[in-house]
Amino acid sequence: MSAAPARSPALPRVALAGNPNTGKTSLFNRLTGSNARVGNYPGVTVEREIGRWALDVGPVEVMDVPGAYSLASRSAEEQVAMRAIFGLDGEVRPSAVIVVIDATQLVRNLYFALQLIEAGVPIVLALNLMDIARAQGQAPDPVRVSDALGVPVVGVSANTGEGLPALAAAVSRVLATPDEGRARPMWRYPHALEKDLGRLSTLVTSTDGSADRPREARALAIWALLSVEDGDELIDVPGAVRQEVATLRAAATAQGRDLDAEIIGARYQWLDGLGLARSPDSTVSFTDKVDRWLLHPVFGLAAFLLVMGVLFQALFAWSDPFIGLIESGFSWLGESTRAVVPPGLVADFLVDGLINGFGSVLVFLPQILMLFAMLGFLEDSGYMARVAYLVDRGMKAVGLHGRAFVPMLSGYACAVPAIMATRTLERRRDRLLTMMVVPLMSCSARLPVYTLIIASLFPVNGRFLWVFPVQGAMMVFMYVFSTLMALIAAAVLGKTLLRGPKVPLLLELPPYRLPSWSSVFRQMWLRARMFVTEAGTVILGCTVVLWVLLSFPKETLKDYDALRAGASDEVVATLDAEEDGELLRNSYGGRLGQAIEPLIAPLGFDWKIGVGLVGAFAAREVFVSTMGVVYGIGSDTDEQSLPLRDRIRAERHPDGSAIYTPLTGLSLMVFFALSAQCMSTLAVVKRESRSWRWPMFLFAYMTVLAWVASFVVYQGGRALGLG
Ligand code: GDP
Ligand code: MG
Predict the structure, then answer these.
(1) What does the pLDDT average to over 265-293?
(2) CATH T-level topology, domain 13-181
(3) Ligand nearest to the CA of 46
(4) Residue extent(s) of CATH 3.40.50.300 domains in the chain
């Protein structure tokens, strides 16, 4: 940071604004010579930074504005950018704004610039990351962009320093003649909307003093229409404005209009029509040749399914040795603990509760690491953007915004960050619809459950349709199934509860390139750490609680000690097993499982699975550790050294038939695929939707869906004579 004089109010202010992660802070540091923290993930700049930049025309004050996808804001933090740019509420009004744009994501980033043009704020566009765009062979031409938008445009690189003198010259010109940085917005809104804006802008004007700047007042009116809603967390919005927005919205809804779509749709359509999305250089490159196949509606989808199939089969085959290693490690740990700690409650807790529970979760780390490495590889190579392109038509057909693809895809890893990623969508309706279906995507927490069931119940050497290894095929099936269910849910919700028109997808296809292993490994490491810390806290906590529930009270009807006295070894062993079984059945957890058994019996689940399901409602992975605890407690010592999958295979009904058949397994996996067993997801939906209604709705509809689907699978399968 520069010294005190930088804050002198006499200096004109230049603001650096734009989408997150476009290099605003890097540029700020370059221009002012300070060293504010640079990050390579969105959301690093929280507090604003101010520094001094020496232009030829004299020094100016530069301000690093927090990144935003849009001026529309839903919370006080997001409001900061809007206030800084308009100079509201005691902020210094910038004399010019440098809109920092990621040149590799040109069109998508320009949306933000359109809003400043609309507001009549004098701007200079800095197309940053030109070095990367050029290396990818798709650097945009600043002259073309400037012609299209009517404002000054400079190509720069905050890393190499390229273009900074030209940026300084452009900013100096705009400071001298602000109109050079203004353009006439060329997109049109419907007449009815203009009338609404007219009414609202007089209100905004009378409260904030922008009477002499009609374009800005209109922009503020647009901001209010898009941002103010029941339960928002905006601050200092006058009551009169709130009331008027509510009135206008109600009137529009009554007329069947969608204000969000009218505003956002008009901007995007205009932007789309500029034809800037594809790089002008039209030589047939390697990328184009490959894309002719990979973007083909038939071959492309076939290739996608093939890639996924190979991926999941590899996941099984390659992780197996590591899984075996971890399994034997934990059973050694359990045996050594039993050897050291005297038999009793403490030893039971350590071995059955802690070690078993933790081990049965950690065992999935190899698969999770491998999944993330492979997904990271595909993402970095540029292939994932092709998949987005391929599925866009399908997404739109079910009413999802094209850009909802990214959150949906992140949903395969974890619904929590995926739901947070819906912030990149402009409309509340699109955000809510995406949030309601993302939890149906098969997240990594379901992977341990699928793996356990598939590995226990489906033959290693089995073949599906004579060619495909059955375990991999089952896994692909679960992922395809969950994806289809998410799309169907979107179609249904999008036509009923969350109706709304579509907005076009703007997507730039990066050229293919070899992924950098360091970034793939970094991603892998971050996600693995998340998994392990979660396993270490939530899961461990739940496991301990469940162990207590399953171990107490220690009551049996028969007096086993008396029966054992003087009996033969064989009889003692049978009595031991019987006692363990009775203890488990009579425990609090066992009783809970039996209490819900009538509810889940039609799905093919017994009370032990019921105990697991109860635990899984906190977090899905807990199911696996609960099963570890259930079968650890309820089995005799010979079996305790067996891995969980063998114990599951050995479970029998009182009549001797196997509890777990492939059909039970399928029913169980379907249940896990569809039910909302994740507290964190519900909590984050509550936060992002700012209401209790949506998480409650999410929980209810997913639980009902899961039950019905499992019922159909199990009863249908039985009717067909399977299992
Ligand atoms: P902000 O979120 O807009 O403030 O973006 P940052 O300044 O934190 O930068 C985001 C990431 O992009 C960092 O990893 C930077 O090093 C990188 N970056 C920024 N500008 C450039 C550039 O011109 N070229 C390259 N190669 N990387 C850049
Ligand atoms: Mg920053």
Answers:
(1) 74
(2) Rossmann fold (3.40.50)
(3) 2
(4) 13-181
